[in-house]
Amino acid sequence: MPTPSSLQPPRLASWLLDLFTPYEQAETIPGDLHEEFTALASEHGSFSARRWYWRQSFKSIAHLFVAAFRTSPLSAAGSVLVGVLLLRYSANLPERVQFAILHWNHVTAYHADWAAYIFWVNTGILLGQLLMCLLIGFLVAFLAKGHEFVATTTLCLLLILIVGVLLRSARFVAPYSHPALLEILHFMFEYPIMIILGGWIVRDIRLSKFRSALRA
């Protein structure tokens, strides 16, 4: 049986907390929670300690969200606004680029196999949209220095909220046959994942550099 001092907090909760914690508090906040987790595990057992850790992690993340917009409103809110505008005005960019490439290469031969032509058009547009969302995540995280994951997560929550409104409207307009339903589903699932991935990459690079500078 592991001793309380050897028990570790839930890895997923620790990872999520680490994503939202500012660089300068990247050691102190998780460290303080880990100490309390060990003490609770000694007194009440690992199950109670893990449940407490999850609860405190969510409370800390909520507090860090509010603190980010209160202490750095320009970078946090401004980066989210930039992301919203980019999503709004670059939504059709991958489609335009895809068709420009097709026409530039004179791919009339694809018309001999119309199914293959449609497949490559749709695949190219989808890949372009996913890449665009990844780049938007990069940019939003780059602008929200120190609060990368707060900004990208806020952008994704706004995106999902908008998609939910569109789905609700589509249900009343034309249930199960709305022409933009597939695009809406992409917005709800793939696009937020790519935006968050972009934010995670930028934060991971910056946090690694910050920790390397502390050790130097």
Description:
The structure is a single chain. The longest helix is centred in the middle third of the chain and has 30 residues, at 114-143. It is built from 9 helices and no strands. The chain has 216 residues and is mainly alpha-helical. It folds into 2 domains: 4-70; 72-215, no CATH class.
* Fraction in helix: over 70%
- Strand fraction band? under 5%
| Strand runs, count | 0
Order of helices and strands: HHHHHHHHH
Q: Spans with pLDDT under 50 lasting ≥5 residues? A: none
Number of helices: 9
Structural class: mainly alpha
Average pLDDT metric: 80
Total number of domains: 2
Q: What's the end-to-end separation, in Å?
A: 39 Å
User: What is the general shape?
Assistant: elongated
Radius of gyration equals 22 Å
Biggest β-sheet, characterized? none
State the gist of this model.
With 216 residues, the chain is an all-alpha fold. The chain is built from nine helices and no strands. Helix 1 packs parallel to helix 3, helix 4 crosses helix 7 and helix 7 packs antiparallel against helix 8.
